[in-house]
Amino acid sequence: MSKDMKFLVVDDYSTMRRIIKNLLHDLGYANVTEADDGKTALPLLQNGNFDFLITDWNMPGMAGLELLKAVRANEKLKKLPVLMLTAEAKREQIVEAAQAGVSGYVIKPFTAQTLKEKIDKILESRAVPA
Amino acid sequence: MSDTAALRETPARETDLLAQLADLTCNLRNALDRFRLDSRLTALAEKEIPDARHRLNHVLKLTESAAHRTLDLVEQSGPPAERTAREAAALAESWARFRAGTISVADYCDLINRIDHFLSAARTDSETVRANLAEVLLAQDYQDLTGQIIRGVMNLVSEVEVVLVDLARLTGTDPNATEAQPMDSSRGHGPAVPGVDHGATIVNGQADIDALLSDLGM
Questions:
Q1: Is there a domain that residue A25 lies in?
Q2: How many domains, chain A?
Q3: pLDDT tens digit sequence for A43-95
Q4: Predicted ipTM?
Q5: Subunit contact A59:B201, Cβ cutoff 8 A
Q6: Under DSSP, is residue B196 helix (H, G, I), strand (E, B) or coil?
Q7: Which domain holds residue A37?
Q8: Does residue A1 belong to any structural domain of this protein?
């Protein structure tokens, strides 16, 4: 995986999407697309050859957990790295996300350093052949 | 004869009347309480709660536009700051050769021109960044405005609470009798609020999540 990886950032708040997009740019990832909930994200994912998905949980329309489940259930998308970036802080939810196949979980408010660490960790684990 | 009978009856009738009067007074007071509560409830439901919704919506707009304004200014400040740093680094290299006396005449002339250009560009770029920072500062004024609005809505919520508790008391409803509906966690609960959401069910920061995920084998 290289710096021209294609990211999809899904969050219902445009300010949060801009923050994440700026942080990704700072990390050297310039190819970032945005979506405001799972419903708009899913068709983009199906047609767009994305390499990495960063999604919020609590969104109108289709929530992040549903999007994660839809991605994992889709033959073409099931191996896509999915980082949950959310304010949801209940233990049961984190367990639920892990069981649904999330690749990483970052709690809001978050730091640029945490975001970088988690993305790097996910990419490193992908780089190792199974 | 009938006079004496009437006289003898009086204490009983008086007690009866007094009891009825007491009942009436009590009912009247309840009715007045209820009326006062009803009219307050009507005012709250018809006017103040919709108002509060508009006020909170305004808070949403103010915070959102302040965040976008700040993000705009930060994004606009990146390129001039990067440009200054990049040009300074490039000049430092030629400057070091000049100081060491190893620079050619042609490179020296080039260096002088680049320094001329850099000094003027750095001044303009720093001015841009400084002006943007001043704007970022101003964009934070939303906190004062939204804070005042939110405080007003909090006062309203307190008042609604008092009215509802009074209403529950008048109608004889036990507020603790019904359990709150559990929320569907797949939709999400929103951010945990300190002092409200706590206990063992809530994770305490990123380290807690990392430990939990590591326990789950991730």
A1: yes
A2: 1
A3: 999 998 999 999 999 999 999 999 999 999 999 999 999 999 999 999 999 99
A4: 0.85
A5: no
A6: coil
A7: 7-123
A8: no
